[in-house]
What does this fold into?
Amino acid sequence: MSNQTLLEVKNLKQYFPIKGGVLGRTVNHVKAVDDISFSVKEGETVSIVGESGCGKSTTGRAILRLDNPYSGEVSFQGEDLLALSKSEMRKKRKDLQIIFQDPYASLNPRQTVSQILEEALEIQNVVPRKDRRKKIVELLETVGIGAHQVDRHPHEFSGGQRQRIGIARALSVDPKLIVCDEAVSALDVSIQAQVLNLLKKLQREFNLTYLFISHDLGVVRHISDRIIVMYLGKIVEIADKKTLFQNPQHPYTKALLSAIPSTHIGEKRERIILKGDVPSPIDPPAGCRFHTRCPYAFDRCRTEAPDLHQIPGKEQRSACHLVEDGPVDFSELQTIY
Ligand code: SF4
It folds into this structure.
């Protein structure tokens, strides 16, 4: 990993309008992502985790401009992506690829694997036509699919193999950043491990940078350098992996960690069950957005939104009033439920 910043996201907001009335005017917004900032270094894997609806996938899509953001800044290698025209952005996509959760839905069932990869190579025009077949075979071998399988259709492969084809397609244009959006969530646990190992191998080989989006902290543990935890459109904690797992400094991160099954025989982990459901992103709670479910909430949390506080001496920031004077030991605090 280098110290060079590859991606910088500043004050990103993604609001989707809600239309109403006879005139179909915008009457409100779904605040799916609400003012988040972070950066990713070249060769780094940064994961974004949180429950469904926290805004993690929306963030990935906004960065790639699959949906244009409502406001904010996204710079890639110092270039403002939001200032690019549609055709400039199309060319830029060569550097910024995405792997989706459901490889079957993202691969055209009528095309052979060879045609799928050929199409990707043709769009970005990265390899002369005469060399494409050779490149396709190389790509498939890189991801562990044999040359004899190039003329098969997606339905002839298993879920894990299909995800490998999705990875080959992303790799085909020599990208710098790959957004992996729940890329292993649909796979069995043993296949998940194989695909994660493949992603790690490819990262070393091709100096790739990953933005890895997942609802599962247990999965991101195997691949991340740093982890961003999101809740209801906001970043609630950012830390390097080790720090986050050893000493989380946000009650929501603590609850997510408690849900990961222990891999150590005999170790008992106390599961923190959060009360209630995630509130609506149309009208999020005032103050700290987590206060309606937080077991440590106090009066101030209901009126004042916490800043993302830097934890002294750590590569860790947490959006909780409790940590504004330094790290806390949550086990010493009284819970309200
Ligand atoms: Fe909980 Fe308050 Fe911290 Fe929010 S600010 S996480 S409600 S203790």
